[in-house]
Amino acid sequence: MRILGIETSCDETGVAVYDDKHGLLSHELYSQVKLHADYGGVVPELASRDHVRKLLPLITKALTDADTHHSELDGIAYTQGPGLVGALLVGSSVARSLAYAWGLPTVGVHHMEGHLLAPMLEDNVPAFPFVALLVSGGHSMLVKVAGIGEYEVLGESIDDAAGEAFDKTAKLLGLDYPGGPLLAKLADQGEGGHYQFPRPMTDRPGLDFSFSGLKTFAANTIRDADDSEQTRANIAYAFQEAVVDTLRIKCRRALKQTGLKRLVIAGGVSANRALRQQMQAMMDDLRGEVFYPKLEFCTDNGAMIAYAGMQRLKAGQTSDLSAKATPRWPL
Ligand code: KG4
Ligand code: ZN
Fold first, then answer.
1. Is 92 near ligand 1, meaning CB less than 6 Å away?
2. 286 alpha carbon to ligand 2 midpoint, in Å?
3. What pLDDT score does 137 carry?
4. β-strand 75-81 against 140-147: which pairing, if any?
5. Number of other residues whose CB lies within 10 A of the CB of residue 34
6. How far apart are CA 126 and CA 25, in angstroms?
7. If pLDDT is split at 50, 70 and 90, which confidence band does 248 have?
8. pLDDT tens for residues 175-217?
9. pLDDT at 107
10. What does the entry list as the binding residues for substrate (predicted)?
11. What is the pLDDT of residue 206?
12. Strands 2-7 and 12-19
């Protein structure tokens, strides 16, 4: 079976062709980062318009690179939500129109399920059940995954997502949008021991997160500090250390609570090197195993949507052609 996957939930246009026997045949990604940079964040209307411009040429390219004619496809998967409604509508309308014209079934995929299953695109695939930490710009959650579609949310952020906290703190440090990776780079120049950020909600039981306090703490720290490059790097270091440490503590708790020894980390923030190092050390200590997507599949992409769509298609779960977009959609 072969499927076309389309991702347009935010500011990346992603398209991929996935085959259940041969794996990923092609994937295309166009990032709108430059378009939104001057505004310090994603401008929804500009995002929708740019998806309109880029999507069809990317689909043509993905099919050509995969040496696939549309008659060889078994379905079209698209991100149905959550995300920006206008951006989602572009992917959903194009996916459903092509499916109608080509006589194919559609599969509306949950964006976070896409992230969750992205590590399955690698050679070393995690076996079910496992605990997944999903950390992106829009969501932070811990999920017990028993199988495809069998998700139990163990905890989630009660305010900002981890990626959002990275981006907002990066902005306070004068870095461009999206600041997460830039803050991580600045933190590489930093030194520990100068600033001590709190580890929110780790002193009480439970698996929920809260990251908005860290941003406020960063704002106060920056206000009271000198503006030398080394000081900024030290603050970035301390902030990142606090986020990573908080995520590590909560993951350890989730593994203990579920009795599981496999941990999957996915979503944009899973590209963070300090986070990967800490999680690896913890899982070595617990004699467990940690899995991540390849760096390019940590952030939004079409490959994860094609993969998740394939699993749904194989289970006979297709969507109605009248399904539009679901901007707010719990996992
Ligand atoms: O999953 P994603 O591409 O989009 C959403 O679904 O939100 O995640 C983007 C988020 C942004 O907040 C970005 O700053 C963050 O992931 N991010 C990082 C790193 N790379 C991306 N945060 C920290 N360190 C990184 N290396
Ligand atoms: Zn995402």
1. no
2. 29
3. 95
4. unpaired
5. 7
6. 21
7. very high
8. 998 899 999 999 999 999 999 999 999 999 999 999 999 999 9
9. 98
10. 134-138, 167, 180, 272
11. 97
12. antiparallel
Handedness of CA 215, 217, 222, 223 (dihedral sign): positive
Query: Can you say how many angstroms the Cα of residue 238 is from the centroid of all Cα atoms in its chain?
Result: 23
- Are residues 327 and 81 in contact, defined by beta-carbon separation less than 8 angstroms? yes
Long-range pairs, 252-258, Cβ under 8 A, ≥24: 252/282, 252/286, 253/207, 254/131, 254/133, 254/142, 254/144, 254/154, 254/155, 254/207, 255/131, 255/286, 255/288, 257/154, 257/207, 258/129, 258/131, 258/144, 258/154
Give this complex's ipTM. Answer: 0.99
- Closest residue by Cα to atom 3, ligand 1, is 299
From 2, 48, 5, 1, select the one nearest 28 (Cα to Cα). 5
Q: Which residue's C-alpha comes closest to atom 23 of ligand 1?
A: 180
pLDDT score of 130: 98
Where b means 16+ CB within 10 Å and e means fewer, 295-330 reads: eebbbbbbbbbbbbbbbbbeeeebbeeebebbbeee
CB of 136 closer than 6 A to ligand 1? yes
Q: SS3 for 292?
A: coil
pLDDT at site 151: 97
Identify the pLDDT of residue 306: 98
Answer for the pair 211, 239: CB distance below 8 angstroms, yes or no: no
Q: Hey, whose CA ends up nearest to atom 13 of ligand 1?
A: 180
The CB of 166 under 6 Å from ligand 1? The reply is yes
pLDDT averaged over every residue in the chain:
97
For the entire predicted model, the pTM comes to: 0.96
197 vs 83, 136, 200, 221, 299, CA distance in Å? Answer: 31, 21, 9, 9, 26
Enumerate the H helices of 107-228 as residue ranges.
111-117, 162-172, 180-188, 212-224
CA of 9 to the centre of ligand 2 (A): 8
- Would you call 225 exposed, middle or buried from its count of C-beta atoms within 10 A (0-12, 13-18, 19+)? middle
The answer to the question of whether 167 is labelled as a binding residue is yes
